[in-house]
Amino acid sequence: MSSAPETDTELMTTVKRVPGGAVSNWLLDNVDAGAELELTTPRGMFCLRPAEVPMLGFSGGSGITPLLSLAKSALATTDRPVRLLCADRDKESIIFDTVLADLAERYRGRLTVVRHLDADRGLLDAAAIREFVGADGGADSYVCGPEPFMALVESALAGPGAVFSERFGSMPSPPRDAPATAAAEPDATVTIVLGSKRVSMPRRANETLLESARRGGLAPPFSCEAGNCGTCIARLTKGSATMRVNDALTEEEVADGYVLTCQGVPETGSVTVRYE
Fold first, then answer.
1. DSSP-assigned beta bridge partners for residue 260
2. Exposed site from 6, 68, 129, 131, fewest CB < 10 Å?
């Protein structure tokens, strides 16, 4: 990690470049009293989806953070039962324990919180996950936590219910000299619409839509640049693109033309992307 910025302006520029999963550590290491930070509104896709089926939440460690918000929303705005399976290393590692206990008391009969401590029972396994799901195979399941935990839960959820995941880790970007997804055609262009601004530029092979937007002098929203958070979402209004990684958009959203611009590479011809 580089040394702390010397000015507030430099700080505001630098903080935007920190991957989403590393923001908290970066702030602890670099921000002092009096510093000014530029914040944006939430833009993620890990939101409570309209449904009448039960809500199941699977959290690993700090993955309980977004699930707590989803549970609060479901309890306050719907009649759906909510059940959470929270996996932590040990009792000392638990966060929001009191908050969840208070919620369970307030919504007695609707909210159930099941604790799994690795120190007492070993690592969570697929059998324990299926036992927790029980007869709620058709429920909406929300998953957040370390990548191995999420992969385990997703593989164990074999029922017909929908599964929504929030990944906060980063993934390595492909090397700059990686083979192009598709060679840029002569005269092919990338057009980016952001607010009242519209820029067009020649397409470059293997360049993401986000990189094209920056090359055109725009400053579109982004965060993790790993295909996880959904901050950079935009809509293709012309042409098509292939996403290297997509851990944020549903199949329906992709079918409607939405794309993660940090991962989207134009396939053929010219493309137009609009940030909504």
1. 233
2. 6
State residue 81's pLDDT score: 97
Backbone phi, psi, residue 163, to 5°: -125, 125
Q: Token pair for residue 172?
A: 């390595």
CA torsion 13-15-19-24 (nearest 10°) is 180
Both structure tokens of 178: 């990686």
Reading the block at residue 4, the tokens are 């702390």
pLDDT of residue 17: 39
**First-to-last CA distance in the chain?**
33
- Residue 14: the pLDDT is 39
Domains in the chain, please, with CATH?
Answer: 55-166 (3.40.50.80), 189-275 (3.10.20.30)
Confidence of residue 194 (pLDDT cuts 50, 70, 90): very high
Residue 146, Cα to own-chain centre: how many angstroms? 13
* Of 12-21, 70-79, 119-128, minimum mean pLDDT range: 12-21
Q: In what order do the strands lie in the sheet with 55-60?
A: 111-117, 82-88, 55-60, 140-144, 163-166
Strand 111-117 with 82-88, pairing: parallel
How much is the pTM?
0.60
Which residue has tokens 């598709």?
182
Q: Do 163 and 187 contact (CB within 8 A), yes or no?
A: no
Assess whether pLDDT exceeds 50 at residue 1: no
